[in-house]
Amino acid sequence: MDRKFQFLGFCGIFEEALNVTVSYRKIFSQITLSIILPLSLIILAQIEISEYLFREIIHNRYALKHTQIGSQRYSKISDILSSQWTTFWLFKISYFIFSLILSLLSTSAVVYTIACIYTEKEIAYKKVMKVVPKVWKRLMVTFIWNSIIAFALIIVLVIGIILWVVTLGPSVIGITAAIIFLLIYFSGLVYISFMWHLAGIVSVLEDVYGIQAMFKSKDLIKGNIGLCAVIFLLDKLCFIGIHLGFKASVVGGNSISGKIWYACLWFMLLSMLIHFALVIQTIIYFICKSYHHEHSDKSSLSDHLEVYGGDYVPLYSKDVQLEHSEV
């Protein structure tokens, strides 16, 4: 199985992802219909709903600004505005929770399925759905640690801005320093982001998760940072393109029939993007393993993918993180 991934380049990764998807389209279609499509619907629907709620808030803020303070109308608009802000933030929190759950479930299902495919193990939709809840818990721990790291980066950014304002300011040296700092900061942010995506794969396929999975993904990325960064940025550009396209043609559209047609189009494109992103991330995981000579033992991998009595049996590092081969 290792030789399969040793010589995969940029184009080869996409070709392999397409081949796997087409060859096992039945189970991937089932996973897409049950998890990925709802996730795509939530992501795009929240754009429309958020825009509507925010427009209402802006309208009432404008009305409040032009209403006499202390009047009955002022109190009424103020109450409505408070209620709208509460609704807006409750909606955003609900969106975050449901999208996170579906995102982690999608990752669990797709990664586990691909691992079974590569080990030539019989795989069925019901079997995947039994395993997914167990894998999901491991991914949640990894996500929490990623959130902690992301929060630490935000603190670094805030401290950097404060120090810049206090010491340098908008001078020539200050602007130059700010540009350099932001370039380094956003490079680190991109690195942490695709490290998190690979850590999700590690959490599913190995016995480590949480901060250990983050460290493991950091080690795996070494030697393939350029490839990971290019694919990650390409994925994000496609996502941004879909987001902007949806806002322009659906949120900003006038024709009802046109909005429906474009909504279906962006909905299908986003579902395809999420699916292929997860497949490609899993393939990159095996490429990184192969690059570091951590050869995967198909029989051991298959044994640990077994589900006994509905319980998920993780792939232990002694089996997946195989001994380094002699070069």
TrEMBL record:
It comes from the Eukaryota. The chain crosses the membrane at residues 27-47, 93-118, 139-166, 172-205, 225-246, 266-288. Keywords: Membrane, Transmembrane, Transmembrane helix. This is Polyadenylate-binding protein 1-B-binding protein. The lineage of its organism: Eukaryota, Viridiplantae, Streptophyta, Embryophyta, Tracheophyta.
